[in-house]
Amino acid sequence: MEMIVDIIIRWFIPFALGAIIAFLKSKLNEALKQNKQKEDRSVIIENAVQSLLRDRLIDKYRHYKSVGEMTILDKENIDHLYNEYLNLGGNGTVKELFDDLKDVDIKIIKE
């Protein structure tokens, strides 16, 4: 009986612990890989949204500079788009356009 207990203590327990640790390590590596893929995808999505905001801001800039006026709602919308663009790491090129739009007249809508 002592021999069986000795075999279990010397061989089976270390083997079982090694197998459990190897299994947990493989699951951890798999989870880390999936997390990295999600982070990479998140960065791609953020960059895509930033590009769309940039495109919209440039489009709005061209439109309102050619028209020469905008409503207060248009101004608030542009401010919101610009702030979200900055939150996503937008740069100074669009800032110049945004600053230039401050010269566009605000159209008063009378009901």
How would you portray this structure in words?
The protein is mainly α. It has one domain. It is built from three helices and two strands. The protein has a two-stranded parallel ribbon with strand order 1-2. Helix 1 packs parallel to helix 3 (92-101). The radius of gyration is 30 Å and the shape is rod-shaped.
Describe the SSE topology:
Elements lengths: L1 H66 L1 E3 H16 L4 H10 L3 E3 L4
Helix pairs in contact: 1-2, 1-3
Search tags:
single chain; 3 helices; 83% helix; mainly alpha; 111 residues; two-stranded parallel sheet
Profile the largest sheet: 2 strands, parallel
Distance between the termini: 98 Å
Overall mean pLDDT: 90
Q: Which sequence of SSEs, written as H and E, runs from N to C?
A: HEHHE
Binned, the helix content reads: over 70%
Number of strands: 2
Shape type: rod-shaped
User: Can you count the helices?
Assistant: 3
The assigned structural class equals: mainly alpha
Count of domains: 1
Estimated radius of gyration: 30 Å
Short description:
The chain is mainly α and 111 residues long.
